[in-house]
Amino acid sequence: MKIKSAVFEVSAPELRSCPVWAVPEFAFIGRSNVGKSSLINLLTERRELAKVSDLPGKTKLINFFLINGAWALVDLPGYGYAEVGKQRRAEFNAAVADFLAGRRNLRCVFVLIDSRLPPQAIDLEFLQWLEGSRVPFALIFTKTDKQSATRNQASIEAFLQAVRAWRTELPDVLVSSSTTRAGRGDILNYIADVLEQGNRTVG
């Protein structure tokens, strides 16, 4: 798949403020500072399309990017960030939950996992919530350039083993690095496959 155009469409604070359109959407979510914005910029090859920051929790709105005029990438607020008050954090979480459970044209949620870390409870709990909400998802392990391929594979296996505790069919797994550009083609091919197969069950 080639990305010929990538345009920021709108930032929405809640589901009812999201674009009214029928274009297929692919959302990205994960713990704060896991590399969501960097990955979106890598996929689109637009350096500053999604704002990148070292400050966890920078993304506080649901950001939509229209790709090739035909489908959209959605940058969701990260979960687990600490630099906002409890009331605001609850609002952000509620907005994300409403979007994920209520967005009819959402085709797949890519859950980003930091490949350097052992399985984190917050990631596993979020996946269980997605499972219970019947939201299609796949995993993307990020920052794979930060350690050896052997350690990356060990991290992935450890995480999947934790998922096996509550899910017999494992989700699809992809890897990425915004530094080396690893995984860009695989992720775009995955999106193309979902688009082509229509109502494919993902995750």
Description:
- It is built from five helices and seven strands.
- The chain is an alpha/beta fold and 203 residues long.
- The chain has a single domain, classed as P-loop containing nucleotide triphosphate hydrolases (Rossmann fold).
- It has a seven-stranded mixed β-sheet with strand order 1-3-4-2-5-6-7, with helices on both faces.
- The two termini are 21 Å apart.
Could you write a compact summary of the structure shown?
The protein has 203 residues and is α/β, with parallel strands linked by helices.
Number of helices: 5
What would you call the quaternary organization? single chain
Q: What is the CATH topology classification name?
A: Rossmann fold
Helicity range: 25-40%
Question: For this structure, what is the CATH class?
Answer: Alpha Beta
Could you say which structural class the secondary elements and strand pairing correspond to?
A: alpha/beta
The number of strands is 7
Strand order of the largest sheet: 1-3-4-2-5-6-7
Work out the radius of gyration.
Answer: 16 Å
Major sheet characteristics = 7 strands, mixed
Report strand %. 15-25%
Q: Which stretches are poorly predicted, pLDDT < 50 over at least 5 residues?
A: 53-58, 199-203
Average pLDDT, rounded to a whole number, is 87
**General shape:** globular
Topology as a string of helices (H) and strands (E): EEHEEHEHEHEH
